[in-house]
Amino acid sequence: MALAPFLPRSVEAAGEQPKRLILITNGQGTDMTTWRPSGTETEFTLSAQLEPLAAYQDRMVILDGVDNEAAIRGPGRGHFGQGTMWTGVEVPTGNVRPQEMLGWPTAASVDAIIGARVGKDTRFPAYYWGTWPIATNGSNQGPNGICHYRGSEDPINPQLNPASAFDTLFDGVMGTDPAIGARLRHERRSVIDLVHGELTRVRTEMPSVDRERLDAHLDSLRELEDRINQVTAECEVPEHPGQFTESEVRDFDQVHVFTRLQFELMRHALLCDLTRVACFDWPHSEGYGNYMEEEGYRPFGSIHTLAHTMSYATEDLNPSDEERVIAREDMANLQQWRSKMLSTELLDKLPPDIMDNTLLVWTSEMSEGGTHSNRNVPIVMVQGEQFGAFEAGRYLRYGEYDPIDNFSQHTGGVPMNQLLVSLCHAMGLDDINEVGDATISTGPLAELT
């Protein structure tokens, strides 16, 4: 009784939920003086920046002291750490950014490495969303804006337009008519019910020992049907997000609008098993608009004029003490809003069986925008209850980094490359012992397990 032709791929393999990985990146870091939790490794209180994620604290691993070492070693420091953080290799010299004489990284990012293995049977081994100004073209783009790479010198442009993402993802997936999905679910149930009925009719002709085995088989079929109903019910095409002009997509004031739309598409892509590696990039430092008042925070102007220069002390960029206070509050508010979006628009809305088998990792290429330091980048991980790779409910701090006094010094931090290996192992790629530059480090971040 071969049922495979009628089953969704994710249920066909005995119904066990596959592991999923979500990578979230924002540029410019945050205000590290108010980002850190307080307390001990296992008894800690989240900062105001992270408080919206409090419901997930027992599933969190907060890493304080991970250095984006590839950026620190190479010529592409600061914002160009975007190109090193997930690849683990330096941004080399080249002509992608002629003014800095920098090129594209020469390695695949960890998402592409993992996606090629865990997502090889899905429609998209990995999928990439973002909000403007993440792109390979434009006056201020390059390895300072692109985080993800298929391979050497092969950057991946995140999809910035939700309408285009919808068309790419859901073309041919149960159609756009909800009635089609309902009919498919009914047809799949009918197939199994038919098989169940046929087997029941022949049961009376079997010896008792065979009847017991058949009964066990029928029970397993019914359990499988229940899993099919659950998966196909979840895999429903969302509403089309609407059409947007290029100027609307590139409107800094609409970051909040597009964040919500993109997160909705990401959720449905994961539910429909279209991809198992989902990446989302918020803008880098020079792309924030005036939407924060609409989100319930104090309005700010251009992040670049305040937060981007909050720690500078040069003649041409020398903010006052008052401006620095405002800048740090703005950055903290922005990070708190991101925490809220991750909680309310993404994690809270994933069904438990999907969330339980998902790992979300959120970080930035630098610790603080004013210093452009690639040391001690903020990292928050949320692990589903069944994911099982790491010991969760912990705040791990390495070294003695201080965002004011020793932001450029090595004070005992660990390299990001070790975390990249740990992510591979967490997703089942146990044979991988190095990601990126092996002279930086090999092996996983041992303290995570």
Describe the global form: globular
Give the fraction of residues assigned to helices.
25-40%
Assigned CATH architecture: 3-Layer(aba) Sandwich
The radius of gyration computed from the alpha-carbon positions, rounded to a whole number of angstroms, is: 24 Å
- Beta percentage is 5-15%
Number of DSSP strand runs: 13
Average pLDDT confidence is 84
Could you walk me through the main structural features you see in this protein, from its secondary elements to its overall organization?
This protein is α/β, with parallel strands linked by helices and 449 residues long. It has a single domain (20-173, 246-448), classed as Alkaline Phosphatase, subunit A (3-Layer(aba) Sandwich), CATH 3.40.720. The chain contains 12 helices and 13 strands. The chain has helices spanning 9-12, 32-35, 69-73, 110-118, 162-170, 178-203, 208-234, 246-249, 255-271, 321-347, 352-355, 416-426; strands at residues 20-26, 38-39, 44-45, 60-67, 93-97, 127-130, 149-151, 154-155, 277-281, 358-364, 377-383, 394-397, 414-415. Helix 5 packs parallel to helix 9 (255-271), helix 6 runs antiparallel to helix 7 (208-234) and helix 9 (255-271) packs parallel to helix 10. The longest helix has 27 residues, at 208-234. The relative contact order is 0.21. Mean pLDDT is 84; it is low at 1-14.
